[in-house]
C-alpha cells in the first residue's frame, strides 16, 4: 500500500485518477451536507440520472466526445430537471418524493433512448458514451482534473460566500423568508451548485453511483458532530479519503473499476461511522442505554432501601420481600449499593450512609418536582 501511495506522485494516470476522485469527494461532501439537511437526498439521484440525455444530446449536436462539452450538456440537463421538479412542486399537489421519482425516471428513460439511438447510428465516434452510466475514472487526464478544479472551486467559493444564507435555508426556511431572504432563489442556487458536483462525478463514478457521493459522506459526518461547519469539514474529508482510497485499491489489481471502489470506500466509512461514532454511533448508543438502565435500576433500588431504612429494618430478607425477589438476589443488590458507598452493614442489617441519604433525598425531590413540571407544560 505504501508503494501505491508513493506512486501517486510518480504515476501520471494514478495521480490524475486519485486527484479527480478526491476533488469529487470534497465537492460532493460539502454540497451533500446541505442536500441531506434539506431532506433532498433523492435530488442528487435525479440530477445524476437526468444528466444522461444531456450528454447524449451534446454528442448528437457537436459530434464530439470532448469531456468538458459532454459534462456541460449533462449539467444543463440536470439543471433543467431540477427546475422541472420545482415547477411540479409549485403548481401541482404531487409530494416531493413523487415529483423527484417521476423526473428521474423520465429523464433517464429519455437518456437511454438517445443512447440506443446513437449506438445504432453510423457515427463511429460514439464508442464509450455508455461508460458515463458507470463512470470512466481511468480515462481522467490532467485537463479533466483542471476542469474539476475550476468547477469545484466555483462551487466551494459560492458556498463560502453564501454560507450563512445556506445555513439558515437548511435549518429554518420559514425564518429565512421572514427576514426577507430570497428563499426560492437561494434554493435554486444551491441546487445549481449540486449540478456542478454532479458534472464532476459523471466521469468518475457515473450516473448510477453519483448519488452516493452526495449523501454518504454527509451521512457519515452527521454521526460525529452537531455543528454544521464541522459536519461540512468532515464530509469533505471523508469524501476525499474515499476517492483516494478507491483509486489506490483500483490500481492495486487489474480490472478493478475505480468508480464502484470509491463508492465501496465511502460506504465502509459510513458503516464505521454508524456503529462507532461517539455522538450517534450504534455501539455507543447501546453503551449509553445500558448505563442509563443500570443507573435507573440502582436509583430505584436505593429508594427501596431508603424506605426500609426509615420504616423497617434493611436486610436482604426485607428487601427481597419488598422487591418480590429472592433473598440471594436482594443480597447481591445490597452489595451493589455498598460498592457505590450508599449503604453499609450494621448490627441489625444494613444502614444508609450519609452519601446514600443525600442521594435518596435528591431523588425524592426530583420525583416531587417532575409532576409539577409536567403540569406546567
What does it look like?
Pfam families: ABC-3 (PF00950). It comes from Meiothermus hypogaeus NBRC 106114. It is found in: Cell membrane. The protein is mainly α and 377 residues long. The chain has 2 domains: 2-279, ABC transporter involved in vitamin B12 uptake, BtuC (Orthogonal Bundle); 284-376, Winged helix-like DNA-binding domain superfamily/Winged helix DNA-binding domain (Arc Repressor Mutant, subunit A). Helix content is 78%, strand content 2%. The protein has helices spanning 2-7, 12-37, 41-62, 67-91, 96-119, 142-161, 163-171, 173-178, 183-204, 206-222, 228-252, 258-276, 282-311, 316-323, 327-339, 354-376; strands at 343-345, 350-352. Strands 1-2 form a two-stranded antiparallel sheet. The relative contact order is 0.12.
Amino acid at each position: 500500500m505504501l508503494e501505491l501511495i508513493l506512486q501517486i506522485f510518480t504515476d501520471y494516470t494514478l495521480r490524475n485518477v486519485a486527484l479527480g476522485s478526491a476533488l469529487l469527494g470534497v465537492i460532493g461532501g460539502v454540497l451533500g451536507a446541505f442536500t441531506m439537511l434539506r431532506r433532498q437526498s433523492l435530488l442528487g439521484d435525479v440530477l445524476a440520472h437526468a444528466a444522461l440525455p444531456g450528454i447524449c444530446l451534446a454528442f448528437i449536436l457537436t459530434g464530439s466526445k470532448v469531456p468538458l462539452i459532454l459534462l456541460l450538456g449533462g449539467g444543463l440537463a440536470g439543471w433543467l430537471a431540477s427546475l422541472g421538479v420545482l415547477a411540479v412542486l409549485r403548481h401541482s399537489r404531487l409530494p416531493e418524493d413523487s415529483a423527484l421519482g417521476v423526473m428521474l425516471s423520465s429523464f433517464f428513460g429519455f437518456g437511454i433512448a438517445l443512447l440506443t439511438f446513437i449506438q445504432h447510428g453510423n457515427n463511429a465516434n460514439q464508442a464509450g458514451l455508455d461508460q458515463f452510466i458507470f463512470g470512466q475514472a481511468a480515462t481522467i487526464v490532467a485537463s479533466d482534473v483542471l476542469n474539476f478544479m475550476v468547477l469545484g472551486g466555483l462551487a466551494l467559493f459560492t458556498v463560502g460566500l453564501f454560507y450563512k444564507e445556506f445555513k439558515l435555508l437548511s435549518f429554518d426556511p420559514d425564518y429565512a423568508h421572514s427576514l426577507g431572504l430570497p428563499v426560492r432563489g437561494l434554493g435554486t442556487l444551491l441546487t445549481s451548485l449540486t449540478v456542478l458536483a454532479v458534472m464532476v462525478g459523471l466521469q468518475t463514478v457515473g450516473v448510477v453511483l453519483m448519488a452516493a457521493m452526495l449523501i454518504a459522506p454527509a451521512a457519515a459526518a452527521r454521526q460525529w458532530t452537531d455543528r454544521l461547519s464541522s459536519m461540512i469539514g468532515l464530509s469533505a474529508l471523508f469524501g476525499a479519503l474515499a476517492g483516494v482510497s478507491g483509486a489506490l485499491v483500483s490500481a492495486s489489481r487489474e480490472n478493478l473499476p475505480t468508480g464502484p471502489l470509491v463508492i465501496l470506500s465511502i460506504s465502509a466509512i459510513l458503516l464505521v461511522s454508524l456503529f462507532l461514532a461517539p455522538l450517534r454511533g450504534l455501539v455507543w448508543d447501546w453503551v449509553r442505554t445500558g448505563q442509563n438502565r443500570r443507573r435507573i435500576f440502582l436509583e430505584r433500588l436505593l429508594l427501596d432501601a431508603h424506605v426500609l431504612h426509615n420504616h423497617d429494618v434493611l436486610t436482604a430478607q426485607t428487601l427481597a420481600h419488598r422487591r418480590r425477589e429472592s433473598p440471594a438476589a436482594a443480597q447481591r443488590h445490597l452489595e451493589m449499593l455498598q460498592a457505590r458507598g450508599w449503604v453499609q452493614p450494621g448490627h441489625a442489617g444494613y444502614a444508609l450512609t450519609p452519601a446514600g441519604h443525600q442521594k435518596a433525598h435528591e431523588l425524592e425531590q426530583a420525583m416531587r418536582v417532575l409532576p409539577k413540571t409536567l403540569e406546567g407544560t
